Amino acid sequence: MAQGNGVILYSGDLQNPTFKDASLPRHRHPRSFHKDGSKRRFIMAACFIVSLLLITAVIVGPTLAFLTSGSSNRPLKVAAFNIQHFGRSKMSDTTVANHITEILVRYDVILIQEVRDSTGSSLKDLWSRLNKTDDWGFVASAPIGRTTYKEQYVFYYRLKLAHLLSTYQTPDSSDVYEREPFSVEFEYFSVTPGTKKQVVLMALHSRPTDAFDELDHLPTSIKSAASHFKGAGGVVAMGDFNADCNYVSSTKQLQLEIFKDNSEFTSLIPDSADTTSGDSNCAYDRIIVFGHDIRARDAKVYNYQKAMGLSDDATGDISDHYPVEFQLH
Ligand SMILES: *[C@@H]1O[C@H](CO)[C@@H](O)[C@H](O)[C@H]1NC(C)=O
């Protein structure tokens, strides 16, 4: 390869490049033109390669860290949070955005429901905020809903603790669901050193007035997701199921397979819990475990109003729900 002035020059078409020595006399091109053009091409190529390397490092770095490291010394903290009408107006309010971020960084994997932002800019904002604390990944469903009113299911996860394997959108040919469950398969560290496990997290935000019918159908959807993701130890279905009070009374709850004792499902958030931040006292948000190899512990409601000492107004600005959380061992 010929070199001149310390710069590698090349000319000709891309299929058949030929190298030229910049120190050779040139007849066809004015010197400055040729030199500047080559230099520019070289600089552009260098910039392109450097930015490619940077992008690769940013994305692959944390993922590689997960894939190559042997264990985490603690369980994986998971939460499902209905952030009422999450979108640009919420994220453009600095106080609210700070509070939401503070709540979310308690966890390693978070499901957010009621995301309503066709531009996606609030999701990007939130992602940037999370990224200031750690390297976070992001995966979301399409906007889902029967009418023009649609919501997205969104997951953020710590790249060094959870590895995204795949996603699955539950089909719904008989149109049972307003917002069909969306599932994400993650690999994570078991508390047993050197052991990784796979779990499927299934999101559902039920339609309040159809909550009973949707929840009645949920076991079928959980089982289909379980057979779709063969390698996973089980499925954890979670979210705002509207599974209480006016939508699903305590008597109706007992008719649902997901809440029956001795069923194949374990419900981690009891009917007595209050997952609402307002005056109501309802266990709308739930966590249901299905599968032979899922060790979910310490499930509870996170009352951020109490924990963060917030006024009723500041609390209501965040959401009318509290997150429900658990830990995977
Ligand atoms: C957040 O961090 C990840 C990993 O470092 C990166 O891939 C992603 O682009 C970042 N997102 C934003 C919005 O900054």
UniProtKB/TrEMBL annotation:
<protein>
    <submittedName>
        <fullName>Deoxyribonuclease-1</fullName>
    </submittedName>
</protein>
<keyword id="KW-0472">Membrane</keyword>
<dbReference type="InterPro" id="IPR036691">
    <property type="entry name" value="Endo/exonu/phosph_ase_sf"/>
</dbReference>
<feature type="domain" description="Endonuclease/exonuclease/phosphatase">
    <location>
        <begin position="80"/>
        <end position="321"/>
    </location>
</feature>
<dbReference type="InterPro" id="IPR005135">
    <property type="entry name" value="Endo/exonuclease/phosphatase"/>
</dbReference>
<comment type="similarity">
    <text>Belongs to the DNase I family.</text>
</comment>
<keyword id="KW-1133">Transmembrane helix</keyword>
<keyword id="KW-0812">Transmembrane</keyword>
<keyword id="KW-0378">Hydrolase</keyword>
<dbReference type="InterPro" id="IPR016202">
    <property type="entry name" value="DNase_I"/>
</dbReference>
<dbReference type="Pfam" id="PF03372">
    <property type="entry name" value="Exo_endo_phos"/>
</dbReference>
<feature type="transmembrane region" description="Helical">
    <location>
        <begin position="42"/>
        <end position="67"/>
    </location>
</feature>
<keyword id="KW-0540">Nuclease</keyword>
